[in-house]
Amino acid sequence: MSTAANTQSADPRTAPSREQRTPSALRGVLSLARAELTLLLRNRTAIFNTMLIPLVLVVALYFIGVPSDAGPGNLLVITASVMAMAYIVYYNLVTTYVARRESYVLKRMRTGTVSDLGILVAAALPSIVLALLQISIVVLGAFVIGSPPSLNNALAVVVGVVLGFIAFAGLAAASTPITKTAETAQVTTLPVVMISMGLSGMFFSLSILPDTLETIARFTPGAAVVELLQTGLSGIDRYGNVIAGFPEALAAMTRPTLVLLMWVAITFALVRDRFAWEPRR
Fold it and tell me: Where is this region: Disordered (predicted)?
């Protein structure tokens, strides 16, 4: 009887297949993401900022006017995208990870069926949803003020937004080991936020910087996102030259895409080796 039982338990037909496990894992991630989104929606300050910041940005650029090769509508979208990645995704996600860690929520999550990567992704999805909402409000505002953004290469826009979200979410996870509490995140996240925005090339061409500083700036995730969005929306390269066709656009996309992939790889390695799932006393 034991032999028969062992044979039956070893029968591959009785074990869950990969196809069966994958939907289950996806459902677990989405379930955690819904719970995180519910908590985030209760944060009225976060929701208020998500709605207010893009409106202020639209009004400010409309009345002040910032000269740019990208055009006013495209500049609005590019600026909103980098701000959303730096603040809503990066900063907000650092505070989320740290708060969940300090309350032992992350540790308890690891006892479930969702993988470590799935837990981190689930926590990041609500912030990404809010970031997309903020960008959408800015796009709508650009149409309202009569400066709608253009679209020259959808692939460059998608690559810039998707890889930008992943890179900044990875930076958030990589920043949690040096952030003791959610309150200290205001200090530990400041360098990434300032560098990502200040050296992104949103408001001025990076080519006006000294050669060494320009080279350093080109390797920041913010600058890579701006370069891809300029290619996709305005059809210009990093120096403001008009891109003639799709092959030239692909060539212009290569370097910033590799920069973002580099940041994704670096942050993945750091998170794998150094991410803390419980408080370090």
Answer: 1-23
CB atoms within 10 A of CB 21: 12
What is the H or E stretch that residue 24 is in? helix 18-41
Encode pLDDT of 62-90 as tens digits: 666 555 555 678 888 998 899 899 988 99
Q: Which residue has the tokens 């001025």?
A: 204
Residues found in the chain = 281
| CA atoms of 84 and 67, how far apart (whole Å) | 22
CA atoms within 13 A on the CB side of 166: 18
Mapped onto helix, strand or coil, the DSSP state of residue 242 is: strand
Q: What are phi and psi of 74, to 5 degrees?
A: -65, -35
8 Å CB contact between 255 and 180: no
- What distance in Å separates the CA atoms of residue 15 and residue 17, rounded to the nearest whole number? 6
Distance in angstroms (rounded) separating the CA atoms of residues 278 and 281 = 9
Q: Which residues lie across from 230 on neighbouring strands? A: none
